[in-house]
Structures are given as C-alpha cells and as structure tokens.
Amino acid sequence: MKRRTFLGxxxxxxxxxxxxxxxxxxxxxxxxxxxxxxxxxxxxGKPSLxxxxxxxxxxxxxxxxxxxxxxxxxxxxxxxASETPALYSKLLDxxxxxxxxxxxxxxxxxxxxxxxxxxxxVLIGNFSFQVNSKIHHDMWFNNAPWGPADAWASAFLDxxxxxxxxxxxxxxxxxxxxxxxxxxxxxxxxxxxxxxxxDQAYPPNTVEFSSIIRALSAAKPDIVYVASYPPDSxxxxxxxxxxxxxxxxxxxxxxxVGLQFGPVMAKMGSLLNGVVNFNxxxxxxxxxxxxxxxxxxxxxxxAVAAKVDPLGFYLAPFGYASGQLIAAAVKATNSLDQKxxxxxxxxxxxxxxxxxxxxxxxxxxxxxxTLQAQFQGIVDNNIDQFKKPxxxxxxxxxxxxxxxLITPFEAARK
Amino acid sequence: xxxxxxxxxxxxxxxxxxxLLSAQFVANEYWFFAGYVILQFIVLSVAWSILGGxxxxxxxxxxxxxxxxxxxxxxLVSAIGAPLALxxxxxxxxxxxxxxxxxxxxxxxxxxxxxxATIAVTxxxxxxxxxxxxxxxxxxxxxxxxxxxxxxxxxxxxxxFVQALLVVLSVAISRYIQNSWIGRGLQALRDDELAAECTxxxxxxxxxxxxxxxxALMCAAGAPGAMYLQYADPASAFNLNxxxxxxxxxxxxxTAHWIGPxxxxxLLGVTQQLLTVTISSxxxxxxxxxxxxxxxxxxxEGIIGLFRKGRRSEGKA
Lengths: 414, 317
Known about the structure:
Chain A is α/β, with parallel strands linked by helices and about 425 residues long.
C-alpha cells in the first residue's frame, strides 16, 4: 500500500512537472522600453516604470497574455535624446522584443519615432507632447491625457475668462515642454482676442524670480499662465509669496511641472494655496475606476522600497494603464500582430484605472482628460493631506468638477 | 617613414572597405547604431587631442562644437533641404570659424583660465540656440531623412560609412600634424610657450591652426548627428557629457600619439555602450570617473604611456 501510494505520488509529480514545463516552454512576451532612470527626467521616469512593473506583476499573476508570461526589458536612456535610437534598435534587433513602450517624456521619445514607424511597430507613448505631429505614425498611442494640442491652454484660459479675466501674462521656462505650452497658449489667446500683456521666457536654472514677478505684476494681468519646471515652480511660488502678484490676478498657474510630485508639494505646503494647475490624476470623487484604489494601495507599499514619489498620482497610474491598453488589444485580437493591435486601439475604447481611453487618428486622446485643479486649504509639512479629497479641487473637465474656484488669487492664498 | 605611410593608408582603406561590406552583409541594425556612436567619439577625441593633446590647451567646449555641428545641419536641412555632404562641409567651415574665435581666447588665457572660457563658450552658444525659435528653440526640432541611396540599405548604414570617412580624415590630419613641423612646434609650446616663442616657434600661428582644425573636425563630426537622431534639442546637443567623455577618452588613451585618442575612444565607447545595456547608467558614469582617476594617478600618459614604458623596460632587460 505504501509502495503504491509512493508510486501514485511519483507519477502525479512527474505529470504535474511535465504540465508545468509545457507552460514554461512558452517563451515570455517581451515588452521593451528605455526609461530616464538617471538625469533630469529621472524623477518622472522611476515612478512611471514602477507603475508598469505593478501592471506586469498583476497580469502575470492572472496568467500573463496569450498564456505567456510578460517580461519587461528596460534600459536607462539618461534622459537624453542621443541615447534612445541605439537602445531601441537593440530592443528590436538583439532582444527581439514583441512590443514597445516609449520612454517617459518628449525629448527621449522624439528620435525613436522614425525608427519605430519604419519597423511598423506599435508604440505606446508615455507623456510626450505632440511628438507624432510631424511623423504621422499610425501605430502611435499616447497614454497621457493631453488630447488635442490646444486643449490645455483652452481649459485654463476658459476658467480665467469665466472668472472675469481679460488679459493674459505668460511666464515660461526656456525648455522643451514649457515652450510647447507657451506656443499653444499664444495661439489660443490670439483666437479669443485676449491681449497678452506680458510674455517672458526665463533661462533654465533660474533661481531668483523676484525681479520677474515684479515686472509681471507691473503689467497688471488678469490671468497668469505659468509653464515651469520643478525647481523654478518652487522659486516662482516663493517669489510670489514674498512680493505678491497684485489684486488684479484672478487665476494663476496652468502648466507648473513639479506641483504634481509628493515631495515638492509637501515642501511647498501652504504656498500652493490658490494655484490652479494641471494634473493627470487626483484623489477626488469621480476619479476612481475599476482597479484604481488597489493600484494605489500597492503603489504606496512599493514606492517606499523603490525610493520614488510616495504619492505617484501624476505618472504611475498611466504606466499601469499603458499595460492595460496593450493587454486589452492583445486579448481581443488574440495575437501580437502589430497592425491588428493598432487597429483595435484605434477603433475601441479601453477601460483603464485612469478611466476609459479612446484615441483619435493621430494617436492622442480623442478628448482631453487633463485636469485643472486648485490647491485649497493646504497646510505646511504634511504629505498625507494630499491623499484626501478636497485639497486639489477639480475645475476642469466639467464632468469631473469637484469644487469651485476661489478668486481672486490673493484671496485664495489666505 | 614611407613604409609607415603605406601601412597606414592600407589599413584605412581596409577599414573603410570593411564598413562598406558590413553594410551589405550585416542585417542587424543595432551594430550600426552602436558603431555610429563609437566612430563619432573617435573623431571627437582625435580632434580634441589636436588642441588638448599636442598643444596642451584643455578644451571643455567639445559639446559647443558638436552642438553647433548638429544645428548647422538642422538649419541647412530645414532651410534648403541640403544633402548630407553639404551639411558636413558647411559645419566644418562654421567649426573652423568658431575654432578661430576660440583661438583668439588663447591670446590672453592659458591653462585653467582657457578651459573655463571654453565652458563659457558652450553656455553662450547653447543659450543662443535655445532662444532661436526658427531652429525649434528650447522645444527642439524634428527633421526627416531623405530616402537612402545605393549601395546602402538603410540611412544609418550610410551615416556609419560617412562617420568612418571622417575618422580616416581626422586620424590622417592628426597623424600629419604629429609628424610635421606643426606637431613639433605645438609640442614645444606645450612644454614652455615663452621659451618656444623665444626660440622662434610661431606660437600664435600654430595655436590658431590647431584651434581651427580641431574646431572644424568636431563640428563636422556633429553634423551627421542631426540625421542620425532626426531630432535636435539644445539640452541633448550641447550636453556636457560630450566634453567630459571626449576628454576622458583622449586622456585614457594618451595624448602623445595620434593612436592614443583612437584607442581611448574605442575602449570607453564600447564600455559605455555595453554598460548602458547591461548594468545601469549610474554605474556607467561611475566607471568613467573611476577609470579617469585611475589613469591620471597610475598612468598619466594613458595607455600609450603604459605601452612605451613596457617597451622601455623590455629594452633595458
């Protein structure tokens, strides 16, 4: 009897191991990407990658895609445009990846667009801005909520006009993203006959803004559209706090990068009050979709170990959504055929943890889902307050609106 | 001497033929992408060494020359759709003029002060381009490649061949300078500029020549970069990493002989490419720094110096 039990156990064991082996024999589906893990964009690249890694672990726990495990092949592009062509060529020719994700941000993405188009590969974009406008790659899908090029400026100026704003001031960093925003803001203001009374670009690495803020407030604008990078966003808010921008200003902010990152927000504290700024995801009612809450629970746990932004609202859930986009297309088409995947993503809306995503012909979102939200009631030195609703009330888009604008700007700061 | 020249040109032709043949037989494009970067660094470090090695004027402005090369090409493509050869030729001329201007700095500045001034040149040029809206300004600019011509299958293969031609050209120039009166004069002024001037070495003319040639070659090396990336933005084109890497390559290889920067560029270029795709970039930069420190302390004359030392001690034994 004993021997028989042993024999049975052995046969079962061999059987199980054979079945297991059959599953393991299937090579994994490789998704290749470069990511800025060092250099100026690393602050965004790391949480974005963590979002994608959480998706990979989730999908592998559910059995992977097409019955195969998902494996990520990631290289560091040092935030530089000159690194990515060689890295993506390696991903395609040496690593033979099945699918491609773009690196975070415009600069590292721009040089790979022609290569990816030439090879006929689907590319899931990661927060770059109008990078496909000249290349016209019909297999490009940007995960960012930007939407049409002018949507960003339109939304902000809309809020300003509704608050009674009639003149605009532009304060922009002399860097890629900020200048792209400034360009569309000028066009939109021109179309709406909003005179631009102040238009100043400042060099990157500027730390002292008091003279610029004085000049800005002397121009007495109603709407101040700021497009800045993390260090300058902090510098500008400090200068505004010391000098003030005048009672005319009804709306201040718009495109300040950095005010989405937990550590920066915690450091700025009450200086943020009143600023109306763009964002991509906020813990407001209406922003939770299937899986959103679970994602952030997992993210908070892993962010500590990965030493990245503990909040991770801005990029991480969109990294996860990139995976959801590709998973939905692969599942529906039951293949890794690039053309079929592209066709599916063009024709279908995909449900993700950041809401349903539908693409227009140029691979950007059909409708903008970029939020404009106002900081209200922020206190100093408390990062946990940002996890609660009501601290950044959404003013745009209308369907997600979670509060009202406090205006003028000086009143909102109190 | 003559036998050396035949060997050199024979090897150069063999090298170019190998590149041309590989374009026919190697289908995997990655080798061309990676090879392009390494060849580009060879041209840059050989060009750097003409001024920094032979004349001893340490130039931190490599990224300025490289970036100007890139943007000259961008300007020509977006303005008149110029072909690649014209882009490189014009970039070389612009680089020569810029080199002349940097040469004028040497009239008043030597040593560390000259080096600081070349960093300033980078900042001035980068700021200018950043504010040049028609060249894309800070937002960068995308350009499109024209279709590739035979015998190449892809544009990158052609760019690799073009960069290989530039390697041969720059090494030939560097070799000529080293073996001619210009090299001897530059060496004299590196050891003691005042003494050289007193003994009748035309130091100013030599320095100017070195600056102009070095500048022209660096800009020429940058020009195909526009078509390689099909995108240019000031932060990447004028990245200080070019200055640091090129300096490290020349110093690690050794600056006393033309082969030094070539060896340094191949060694560091390959190491950087390998590390980028195997470990992380943080380690990559660390390796560069550690290698530089080790060589400066242990082998101040670079790999070439080590070889010579080895030979000398063999001779003694």
